[in-house]
Amino acid sequence: MKTSKAKIVSKPKSARDRILLxxxxxxxxxxxxxxxxxxxxxxxxxxxxxFYRHFPSKNSLVVEFLESRHQELIRSxxxxxxxxxxxxxxxxxxxxxxxxxxxxxxxxxxxxxxxLGTVLPEVVRITQAHKRKMADIIxxxxxxxxxxxxxxxxxxxAIDGAIIQTQYDGTPDNALxxxxxxxxxxx
Amino acid sequence: MKTSKAKIVSKPKSARDRILLxxxxxxxxxxxxxxxxxxxxxxxxxxxxxFYRHFPSKNSLVVEFLESRHQELIRSxxxxxxxxxxxxxxxxxxxxxxxxxxxxxxxxxxxxxxxLGTVLPEVVRITQAHKRKMADIIxxxxxxxxxxxxxxxxxxxAIDGAIIQTQYDGTPDNALxxxxxxxxxxx
DNA sequence: GCCGAAGTAGACAGACTTGTCTACATTAAT
DNA sequence: ATTAATGTAGACAAGTCTGTCTACTTCGGC
Lengths: 187, 187
Description:
Two copies of one chain form a homodimer. By secondary structure, the first copy, chain A, is an all-alpha fold. Chain A has two domains: 11-56, Orthogonal Bundle (Arc Repressor Mutant, subunit A), CATH 1.10.10.60; 63-185, Tetracycline Repressor, domain 2. Chain A contains nine helices and no strands. In chain A, helix 1 (15-30) crosses helix 4 (58-83), helix 4 (58-83) runs parallel beside helix 7 and helix 6 runs antiparallel to helix 7. The longest helix of chain A has 26 residues, at 58-83. Chains A and B meet through helix 6, helix 7, helix 8 and helix 9 of A and helix 6, helix 7, helix 8 and helix 9 of B. The structure holds a DNA duplex (30 and 30 nucleotides).
């Protein structure tokens, strides 16, 4: 098990997976435009040829990054909700853990909107798909009613707001409490 | 009154003002990183020397852009609230008009967080100052109580959420309705 | 008119960016 | 062993980016 001092990702997987894993990390932590392909290449331990064999352009890697993040988040969100009791309250410990995470830097989708929303329309499309799917999942936590679709979207809206507030204010607990209040007041 | 076909801003003001005006327009519409200094220079009708005389770096222009946008928005927000009756409901027509505006591209501060939050900490600081000031103004619309500070922050949170949802979903009326519901349910 | 402030026209520099390509080596499947 | 798939090592190219600088002109204040 190599734990090299260099920032080279240990090579447990295919080159493609390593690139995607490295991109996921750096894109989220440091920003998409702040991360050049040479950095990705160096840190994933592949060559330029290999990089471009798997991803025809940086933008296609960005799209893949967002798509895979979307899939992964949906999966883990659903799983965690189930583990937390499957009601709307199950959302809060998930969000709490995330907000307190040292790696928290807001929502990758929202950040991408700001970074690339005007130059890469796929980013807007994927963000929309992601948020709508999340709202669908939230809707299933709610008692069925005529309003449940809108209630779920309102909750999604409040979660997005709490994400933003945590990001600029650095006060996760306060944002979480506000989120809880809003969600409860919608019930 | 020159209305030249070229995209050169007519020269009503000092070079500095022209630069700032052009930056405000392009940074918001197209993105900060998507706008290079050469573009700013060409469209504001100044030379490189003049540009750098007024702004020692692109980043300092970005900071100035956000600071002046902050001041301007506070001013116009306060004014519009007063014109709309000075209650919390006064927020809605303001937000509605903005969301329906052809120029709407989300919140410049939130977009900047995504674009530059990791590389220019001033962006985070200004965004925080802006949002807190907005919340202070919102608080003044509310009946005084122990909770009014938190209520104002909850409303600010919901506004941010509505901004994001409008941005990715392109459904301003729906987001606005959700915002209204949340604000009312907090009262 | 004089002089400093402000501005013009661009050339230039170095770094960074994304992407193309050659020659060769290694791995995996048959 | 053979062959295709996959990967390595880099060099290279063109464009873009931010910022520095020279020489000269125009504007504004006294």
